[in-house]
Amino acid sequence: MTDHKTELEKRNIIRLSNKQAKMVTKSCLQTALIQLLDKKELSDISVSELARRAGVSRTAFYSNYQTVDDVLTELIDQELKEVNNSIWEAINREEDFFPPIIQKMKDNYDLYSLLMKANIEKTAFFQFRDYIKDSYPALDKKAYYMIIAAIGSLRSIIMEWFINGCEDSVALISEICDKSVEAVKTEIFPKLRES
After folding, report:
1. What is the DSSP code (8-state) at residue 165?
2. pLDDT of the residue at 1
3. How far apart are CA 26 and CA 62, in angstroms?
4. CB under 8 Å to 161, separation ≥6 — which residues?
5. Is-contact 195 136, C-beta < 8 A?
6. What is the C-alpha separation between 61 and 57, in angstroms, rounded?
7. pLDDT score, position 138
8. Please, what is the average pLDDT of the chain?
9. 3-state class (DSSP) for residue 16
10. Closest CA to 116 of 79, 74, 86, 158
11. Cα 133 to the chain's mean position, in Å?
């Protein structure tokens, strides 16, 4: 017999503060969305279906999000922030930042595969582009375009690696990623550290 519990029921939660309840509701909705993306396209997922799968009311959904796309956007944003923090920690320590990021992606293969299957990496690319614009408004045009080119290159490498089932080693993919952004690392990152 299949377990048909909602995400909220699986967590066996009884009483929470408003802040805790909001966090749990968002987490349940994000998890339910990932599960639904395994079966269907994002455009085919309704608020009602997502709320039902998460075990929350439509009212709870709408008190946190306006659309199903907003759930995904927040999930991607959280992932991008984690990746960005890892990158900047490594840059500030002048360490190679690709191995831990590539390893994280491999460890979370199911999640990233679903996101890629739903063509979400395009959304992530544009969010990252906007993040760069917002975080570094003083970037000159050359630096901006070099960063965008590097992001595009990394996206292509990672996509191909995932299409091939992450068969190649984390070390190999990290080395290829590192070489593909060498110009950005040597020419742009030092300027960003100074600002």
Report:
1. T
2. 45
3. 11
4. 168, 173
5. yes
6. 6
7. 81
8. 81
9. coil
10. 158
11. 18
Q: How confident is the model at residue 167 (pLDDT cuts 50, 70, 90)?
A: very high
Asked whether residue 29 carries a pLDDT value surpassing 90, the answer given is: yes
The CA distance from 121 to 137, in Å, is 24
CA distance 72 to 30: 7
Q: Tokens representing 57?
A: 């009311």
Tokens of 71: 């759930």
- Asked whether the beta carbons of 16 and 34 are under 8 A apart, the reply is no
Q: What is the pLDDT of residue 15?
A: 58
Alpha-carbon 159 to chain mean position: 14
Q: How far apart are CA 69 and CA 152, in angstroms?
A: 23
- What is the rounded distance in angstroms from the CA atom of residue 86 to the CA atom of residue 177? 15
Q: Is residue 70 pLDDT above 50, yes or no?
A: yes
Q: Residues 13-29: what's their mean pLDDT?
A: 78
Tokens describing residue 108: 């979370």
* Spatial separation of the C-alpha atoms in residues 153 and 193, rounded to whole Å: 22
Q: Do residues 144 and 67 make contact, with C-beta atoms less than 8 angstroms apart?
A: no
Tell me the two tokens of residue 40.
């269907």
| Distances in whole angstroms, Cα of residue 108 to Cα of each of 1, 114, 125, 163, 192 | 27, 10, 19, 15, 30
Q: How far is CA 51 from the centre of its chain?
A: 21
- Do residues 61 and 51 lie in contact, with contact meaning Cβ atoms separated by under 8 Å? yes
